[in-house]
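Incident log entry.

Two folding requests arrived from the same account within the same minute. Monitoring flagged them as a possible duplicate submission, but the sequences differ. Recording both here for audit purposes.

Request one:
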Amino acid sequence: MRRGCLFFIAGLAILLGVLGWLANSFVIQPARALVQDFRQLVQLESGVRRQEPYQPPASGQLSPSQVQRLLRVQRAVKEGLGSRYTAIEARLRQLSDRFSAQQQLDYRAALDLFRDAGALIVEAKKLQVQGLNAQGFSLEEYRWVRSQVYGALELGLPKLDPQKLLSQIASGDFNPQTALEAPAPNPANRKLVQPYSKELRDFYAFTWFGL
């Protein structure tokens, strides 16, 4: 009986050790990497030449030029990543479809993408900064245009807060969540954006990282 208890305790200790290793490898380390990469993304934004405030129109209406400029930035990111983007394109589409009708973003899904993609998101951010400069976007204008474009598709965007994510992870919450916020759809914007709906939806998961 005593020997059986010892075997049980030893087995339980081994099981807990394996579970701890799995949690560290597949949850804790990717979560910390996520926060570190978010910090890099914020730092990279200092490379955008236009940092001035942007005053959006009171109507909330996009111009055709703004939609085209945003599309060019996104296309530049995809083209710059080349086969690395192609390798995760199906995964991006699955994530986009999964969260397209939700109001909360589960960053565990993002952790899966990070684990599979490595430093791809950081490289994508570098390409985005180049694209923003090439298209004459300020950070504020781009963020507003992106919000209106995806709002027209009834897709919300998260407010990224790396420090808050880090605090949640430090407290043992390895499944941080954030609200997906979208402006009220503008009929004129919907008409402008609709022809590019599939292309924009395929890129949607990238917007969770500020792209």
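Request two (distinct sequence, not a duplicate):
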Amino acid sequence: MSEQKDPQQKLDESKETKIAAKRKIMDIIARREHSEAELRTKLSGKFADVEGGLEAIEEAISYAKDKNWLEEPSELAYRLADMLHLRNKGINYINGYLEEKGLPSIETDSALELKKALAIVANKFDEDFKFSHEDKARVGRLLAARGFDSETVRKVIYEKL
């Protein structure tokens, strides 16, 4: 026999779900900055199956916005891009990463991209290394795998090596 819940019980469960969603969003944001899309995904994993869960997720995100816990998407995108620039990732990798997080793409700085690509090549090969055709192909594949655009790869291979 299925057990029927009275309206007061449903109201209490809905209220508990909303409180739990707010706590969860505080825990998530305390670890690192997240985009709104990331928060929705993470909260959906926990609260989507619960009755009133979607409403609780929306309320928790609104609560976080009201408290100014969520950064503007463009500001967060630039901060993440700077972190990835320090790790010598290419613009295609960075924009793909930002897209995964639900953030806007950033513009490329070709001088910075070239500098990062040359740093990767210098780290991988000796300074006086003589590049054969096969070595240049290896460098091209390496840079493409790191997310550099084809123009940067071409400049490194044909103009700098």
